[in-house]
């Protein structure tokens, strides 16, 4: 564990609060929780209702059980294209995040652990790139890919997704915090090469940070809609978010009830990732806040 | 940097070269996927498409460096989309961040119970991809299926016209707020956690109330986090695309294909007006870059 991943807790006195303030605070928090959770709850409930009844009855409570049939239906529409979309999403997000994490780790490590001419410029450019969102580059990317004939290939999705200035920034923050200079020096005295030290010493220490970077990038690629919507026309190459929007805009060619169930299925992998890897999210957000 | 004594000269060369070797994969991809497309779009924006009167032959490109930019700044739909996004940002960003700060302070307050639940509950929408959230809200808004209106109708006898001309933009804003409030709240909350306990203890000894402590100590101390989230939110508004695009088919015409600048540029791509789309993208990228730069300068964080 790096120090950043441990959450700091303050001792809090519980006695000096009044029942009125406790009630007020809890009432507001419950209201907020209702706002944030109600749509997701509605989606879960609707997905379990029998086919064709997604919008009947109360939106907030169960009414019959058809989840299994509904799922079978989703995987059946258009010759099972939904399964293909899910696999595409996993492939794009997994591949881009894996390669991207290694690329970012190397770059961030170099910035944090070496003094070299041009370091400030490189870091400045990366910070500027963090501030300009990727979406701004998507139309230009489309125009360029159109020129070089990369449209409608997985590379058109993967290559831009691998680059993550935010990942480099996180890697440099984490490397500066967690990899001691003495350890690198010790490796050098033992005669290990710089890359060897990076791979077998620094990478190992940075592992929790690398999980965070991987997670952020995986979700970013999974959620990216504009890029695949523009560069991938072939439905069999599209990720699930593009496919789902296509279904949603199909004017009823795919029944609205089926779209609801598909939307529910498409968020399950991410919700599981969030719930099980919470501490890594905290680490990334904290690093973002202290810059 | 002190060089290790063994093999002085070659070690120094190695030390000089190593960081650049580590940086090479990233820099190559960065140049190819960030700088090259922008340069390409910029060059393309300097040309115009010349079609012959009947459209029988393929259009040809003619070098005319200002034509597209002149058109951008007189394009009523593009200007209107910029104005719409500006209005969106001026209202939605303060509302969302105010809500995020308020919830963060409440969860941080002594009166809160179940902090973990509320933190996670607010953050969970962030796990839902933006377009999937928009698809979900499209069902909650849809005149046909809306359970919200179903409830309001039966309980109070009125419904909300989510896609009336007056409300459509705020229906979009609600989806964005729903997705991002928890994310911003968590950044602010993390910053609140770094306030030293002694500082808060001192305030209490001085007799400061919870409100006073929040206003005079906590909020000033999380100022960097607030600035950061503001900048990211402003940038997020400028690139508004996913939510209105998904809601467009069910909006009954309230959301047009040029609703936001990015949608307008994308519509030009779809119409294969590549040079003009390139000009709109360049203008938009410059506007976003200048806005965030100016904001950082104003708030005094650019100096560091």
From TrEMBL, chain B:
Residues 82-295 form the ABC transmembrane type-1 domain. It holds the Pfam family BPD_transp_1. It is found in: Cell membrane. GO terms for biological process: transmembrane transport. The keyword Transmembrane applies. The chain crosses the membrane at residues 20-43, 85-105, 117-140, 160-180, 221-241, 276-296. Its main location: membrane. PANTHER family: ABC TRANSPORTER PERMEASE PROTEIN, DIACETYLCHITOBIOSE UPTAKE SYSTEM PERMEASE PROTEIN NGCF. Belongs to the binding-protein-dependent transport system permease family. This is Sugar ABC transporter permease.
